[in-house]
Amino acid sequence: MTHHRTGRRRTALAGSLTGLLIAAVFLGGPASPVYAGPAEDRQRVQILSETGTPSIRAAAAKALSGTDTDIAAFLETGLPAAQELDDALLTAQISSVGGPHVRAAAQKAMLGTAKDIREFLETGQHVARELDDRETIRAAMAAGSDTLKREGQKVLDTGDWAALRSFVTTMLPRLKVQDDRIATARTLSWGGPEVVKAANAALNSADDAAALREYVATGQHVAREKDDRAEIAELVKAEPAMRASAEQALAGGTGTIRAYVERYHRIQVNRVLAAGGPEVRTAAQKALDEDTDRAYVVFLREGQHEARKRDKAAGWKPPTPAPAPVVTEPTRKPAPPEPAKNTTPAKEAQPARELAKTGVDAVSIAGTGALTLAAGVGLLVATRRRRSA
């Protein structure tokens, strides 16, 4: 970092208003100037009372209301004391808005001497800020788009402090807004009504940077839970047998609700795959391999229909189901004589015993039917949404 120490010193000197004022007033003289006389001293104090930092202005104004002795005392002791106070205040202000490294360096300086604070203002804050800037860029790259990663790496490779500062203050905010805009627009392709509504509101907001960030961070998740709850309500309305599992999911909170809806979307994709042609099966398998709810929903809304068109164009037809057997009324015969009574269970009890042998009961069969119907209902819900979109 030695290659830009000179630049830092220049920046620090340029940013030290008190130092410039003192240099201007004393015309570049030594630290303890030789005063020409009361008139000249009063003129210098007058300048400081108008252009100095807050503490210097207040002390200079007080000295101007006094005698020549007060003026001389201010220039000799009051001015350095006021500067130390303003340096400490400035260090505290820098610490309050700085990153972790800047705060640590400022805290260390404030626990030291006036010289330590002056060194922080002139050089230490810049060294610490470079470390903070590098960490800020790396963190943004880890969560950002390919464009942000590429531009971030480019500026990190330069090793130039001014380039890092410029990137963090100007380029990085623009790239983050661009990433948020893309992420928001993508949710339009697979979100439900509430997600679409919230996404469009963020995209059309006057303060788009703040609105997009809020949507990506929290808004989309709030909207998606509303959509999930509405979808579960539709499924339960169509298939009452699902009520118990649905209520359990709804009672579990956001994560459980989301997992419940994703599971049924995956079931829907599997059912479409099982009944579809080659193109439909390929598209469905791709969605299953991606294993995201976005992939499931996009397939159910659009992908399956596009794939079905390709299957139809290729001449694929679903297999014709076998005809149901024709049942004819048998020739009536005389009723056989009534058998003698015994303790053997009736013949109607045989199916129940057979189910018991296989470990399958009526509840399991009902559950399977509910699951199958739930998948079909969910598919219908997704299809309706696609058509209304």
Short note summarizing the structure:
The protein is mainly alpha-helical and 389 residues long. The chain contains 17 helices and no strands.
Task: Write a structural description.
By secondary structure, the protein is mainly alpha-helical. Among the domains are: 2-143, no CATH class; 229-315 and 365-388, no CATH class. The protein is built from 17 helices and no strands. It is elongated, with a radius of gyration of 39 Å.
Radius of gyration: 39 Å
How helix-rich are the residues, as a percent range? over 70%
Low-pLDDT stretches are 1-36, 343-389
Query: How many beta strands in the DSSP annotation?
Result: 0
User: Could you spell the SSE succession in H and E letters?
Assistant: HHHHHHHHHHHHHHHHH
The largest sheet is:
none
Task: Tell me the strand percentage band.
Answer: under 5%
Secondary structure tally, helices: 17
State the shape. elongated
CA(first)-CA(last) distance: 56 Å
Mean pLDDT score: 79
> Based on helices, strands and strand pairing, what is the structural class?
mainly alpha
